[in-house]
Design brief:
Largest sheet: 11 strands, antiparallel
Number of helices: 4
Strand content: 25-35%
Length: about 280
């Protein structure tokens, strides 16, 4: 049997693991989710139009033929397949731009919604929308016709979650950012706060609007897809209390230098790499 390392060596291993970024050593799970609700907030003083059941949603300012008004996309994903207590380590969003008012690159940003919104049965075939139906989100309503936004145009954070230049027709990916991870972590920790994101295009330039396929698209691959990478909460639970915490750390240190349950990377010895895994999966 191999001898255990001394306390000083263990302390050094902890320091090194933290310095190197503990999550990088963890074998994470990945889930790919298709949007469950998406719609368009169409700038209109009465909230008369929406795109609830349309195959598209829009982001940016339209041209004079559309009244030179603003469109804001709304997209939300069901995160319930991610176990409660998971640690989110990466998030990206892929969407298909199926039409562009201007084919020149325009910045399209995501901002987290701060209140719920709906998708009704309104069917529109263009950015002008169709008459709003029950539960539709509009420029004025979170849920048409009775529940209003506190501010016309939607309630969302000023912080940008992620941004991407979007030009002509094609697939675009909003890569993982610290804020993207923070957003999804908060939604997983508190599912009642999962209101999705507002998709904001160029709201200054006429005809800068971009059209994105929605979850109603007849082409499954073109529907919005959110990829989430996460550490399951109990993968490294050594004590059976459904948490990864100080008790598990004590169990790991108790088996330091020998083979055992805390040998997460299966190299035959509990060591610094296993400690990094445990700290990366920490829940409390």
């Amino acid at each position: 049997m191999k001898s255990r390392s001394n306390p000083a060596a263990v302390t050094t291993a902890i320091t090194v693991a933290l310095a190197l970024g503990v999550a990088s050593a963890v074998s994470a799970d990945t889930v790919v989710l298709t949007s469950v609700t998406d719609n368009t907030l169409i700038e209109d003083p009465t909230g008369a139009f929406s795109c609830g059941a349309a195959q598209y949603f829009f982001a940016g300012r339209v041209g004079v033929n559309g009244g030179s008004t603003i469109r804001r996309g709304a997209v939300r994903f069901d995160l319930s397949s991610i176990p409660a207590g998971s640690t989110i380590t990466g998030v990206s969003l892929r969407m298909y731009c199926s039409a562009a008012g201007l084919t020149s690159a325009q910045t399209v940003s995501l901002k987290r919604f701060q209140a719920s919104w709906g998708e009704g049965p309104s069917v529109a075939f263009g950015g002008g929308g169709a008459p709003s139906q029950t539960n539709d989100v509009t420029w004025l309503h979170r849920h048409y016709p009775g529940t209003l936004w506190s501010t016309p145009g939607g309630q969302f954070t000023s912080t940008i979650t992620a941004s991407r230049s979007v030009g002509t027709v094609g697939y675009y990916t909003w890569a993982s950012t610290p804020q993207f991870i923070t957003d999804v972590q908060a939604m997983v920790n508190q599912p009642s706060s999962n209101f999705g994101w507002m998709v904001q295009g160029n709201e200054t330039t006429l005809q800068a609007v971009k059209r994105f396929d929605s979850h109603e698209s007849t082409v499954a691959a073109s529907r919005p897809q959110l990829t989430v990478v996460y550490l399951p909460p109990t993968s490294y639970d050594l004590t059976g209390d459904n948490k990864v915490n100080g008790a598990d750390l004590a169990a790991l240190l108790g088996g330091w230098g020998v083979d055992g349950p805390a040998d997460f990377n299966n190299d035959g010895t509990v060591g610094a790499a296993d400690l990094a895994v445990l700290l990366g999966a920490w829940t409390s």
